[in-house]
Amino acid sequence: MKKLLFTSILLMFIFSNALAQQEKGITGFDNWLNPWTDFTPNKTDYRKPNQIISGDITKDTKLLKRNTYILMGDVFVTDSTTLSIEPGTVIIGDFKTKATLTITNGSKIMAVGESTDPIVFTSSQSLKKPGDWGGIFILGDAPTTKEGISERLNYGLSSSNSKNIAYGGDNPESNSGVMEYVRIEYAGKRTKEYGYFNGLTLAGVGSETILSNIMVSLCRGNSFSVKGGQVELEKFVSYKSSANDFKVSNGAQCRLMNSLAVKSPYISGAQASRCIYALNNDDDEAFAEINTTLTAENLTLINVSKDLSYDIQVGLVNEAIFIGRDANFNIDKSVISGFKPAVYLDSKIRVNSESLDKIQFTSTYFNNCEGNIFVKNTTVNEDLENWYGSRAFNNVYSKGPDSETFIDAQSTDRPDYRLIINKIAASKTDN
């Protein structure tokens, strides 16, 4: 009995010590990316669709794993209806009609997959490309920049009723359902007037909505766009989006935890493509009663380059994070690796204690970045280096290659982006 007790205590000590050493970046005793993610979706074949989804869904509906569905045109779940989706169900977004799925304000989605049986939204094309179909919109009545005010989606969705594209209100606990273990592939269609769609748009979504283990891969627009609302996002993955991985705006109160963004300099769009883009409003001059607040913990933001120095030299690499004027930003125990620079602050942000008290970088590992934190359009950042480089913030700076930093960032099948235990020096060194 004593031997068993001793063994249990020893195992607990080992596990807690390992977790403490891996506390920066995505974390966990196991690689939680397995087995539900797919980093080579072009190699995955699905059955041909045998069911069509189109128009408005006005009564409770359940999608079954035994069927394969094709989403055609702009589909709206309306009239306080619930759309339920079984684990393992595949929904194919039609290329010709640039399909979208919108969960309207008051309706719900119950897309509850499993680690071994995720729900998949993907392209109808045999040769799949980013932007093959639209994406998913979830709308609620949580506050945006102006509490109690309803806004409209600006994507040109074809709806029979304008209320189907309305979001925002005065209910921070708004419940739009559950999404767990869901993959969204090849979304982000382009429209001439409205630009690129996002993989998953959360607009006015409230705190009672459960969102975890969601992967958006190879999206032509932003992978995730949070417009207002009050949400908690856990174990989110953005893989090689052409635009931003996480765009948080319109007064959103967002907590982002234990999540991953993988950038590729070879597929980014013409505009700046960042891991995180935090701002108050899409219209920078618009008045905001509620300022956007992003609180992030245990993120890994990594740029995967074949030759990082060359890619930086020819201008293929952007900053990992851009923080707009008046936005509140707090990131802790995270990893930012392989960017130029790590962070840009909006040029209108003044470098003083009042501004920087709202922008926190703590216990974060800056690795292999050409420069750390700058105000946009400036080349001197001594004040910011001194501010965030102080012991109080406990940040670490390094120049380690991916092979010595992450457990297995090179794998094309089952990568592991957790930090290698004991590879981070305990002391802080300036780069």
Describe it.
- By secondary structure, this protein is mostly beta strands.
- It folds into two domains: 188 residues, no CATH class; 181 residues, no CATH class.
- It is 10% helix and 35% strand.
- It is built from five helices and 32 strands.
- The strands form four sheets. It has a 26-stranded parallel β-sheet that branches. A two-stranded antiparallel ribbon has the order 10-11. Strands 13-14 form a two-stranded antiparallel sheet.
- A hairpin with a 3-residue loop joins strand 13 and strand 14.
- The chain is globular.
- The N and C termini lie far apart (52 Å).
- The C terminus is likely disordered.
Question: Which features would summarize this protein structure in a list?
Answer:
disordered C terminus; 431 residues; single chain; T9SS C-terminal target domain-containing protein; mainly beta; 26-stranded parallel β-sheet; 32 strands; 2 domains; signal
Termini, distance in Å? 52 Å
Multimerization status: single chain
Major sheet details: 26 strands, parallel
Task: Return residue spans where pLDDT drops below 50 for at least 5 consecutive residues.
Answer: 4-21, 424-431
Mean pLDDT: 90
Using only C-alpha atoms, the radius of gyration works out to 22 Å
Strand content: 35-45%
- How many helices? 5
Number of domains: 2
In percent, how helical is the residue content? under 10%
Structural class: mainly beta
SS elements, strand count:
32
Rough outline? globular
Question: Would you spell out the secondary-structure blueprint of this structure?
Answer:
Blueprint: H1 2-21, E1 51-57, E2 61-63, E3 68-77, E4 82-85, E5 90-93, E6 100-103, E7 108-112, E8 119-123, E9 135-139, E10 151-152, E11 166-167, E12 177-185, E13 190-191, E14 195-196, E15 200-203, E16 210-217, E17 224-227, E18 230-239, E19 246-249, E20 253-263, E21 276-278, E22 293-303, H2 308-313, E23 321-323, E24 328-332, E25 335-337, E26 343-345, H3 353-356, E27 359-362, E28 365-367, E29 373-375, H4 382-388, E30 396-398, H5 402-405, E31 406-408, E32 416-419
Parallel strand pairs: 1-3, 2-4, 3-5, 3-6, 4-7, 5-8, 6-9, 7-12, 8-12, 9-15, 12-16, 15-17, 16-18, 17-19, 18-20, 19-21, 20-22, 21-23, 22-24, 22-25, 23-26, 24-27, 25-28, 26-29, 28-30
Antiparallel strand pairs: 10-11, 13-14, 31-32
